[in-house]
Amino acid sequence: MIPARFAPVVFGLILSGLMSCVVSGIATIKALGPVDGVFGAWMLSWVFSWLVAFPTVLVVAPLTRRLVARITRQD
Questions:
Q1: How confident is the model at residue 67 (pLDDT cuts 50, 70, 90)?
Q2: Distance set, CA 63 to CA 21, 33, 58, 60, 67 (Å)
Q3: What span, in angstroms and rounded, lies between the C-alpha atoms of 63 and 57?
Q4: Interhelix angle for 38-71 vs 7-32, to 10°?
Q5: CA angle 63–65–68, rounded 5-degree value
Q6: pLDDT-derived band of residue 43, with 50, 70 and 90 as boundaries?
Q7: pLDDT score at 75
Q8: Considering the entire predicted model, what is its pTM?
Q9: CA-CA distance, 14 to 8, in Å (whole number)?
Q10: Positive/negative CA dihedral, 41, 22, 19, 69
């Protein structure tokens, strides 16, 4: 098991992987249509997207948490 102190990084890895997969899939299918080879193009697009998405999530997540804390009320 991964130590709990790495939870934010693991969360970012999984979230960025899932979101970049979905978004790159939609964009690839929209751009190419349902043609032969679209799955391979999607996977290639996903890899490049994930390489950008993961570090972006790690940088943006703390800023987003602070913004959410400012605009929401604590009960």
A1: very high
A2: 23, 36, 10, 5, 6
A3: 10
A4: 130
A5: 110
A6: very high
A7: 78
A8: 0.82
A9: 10
A10: positive
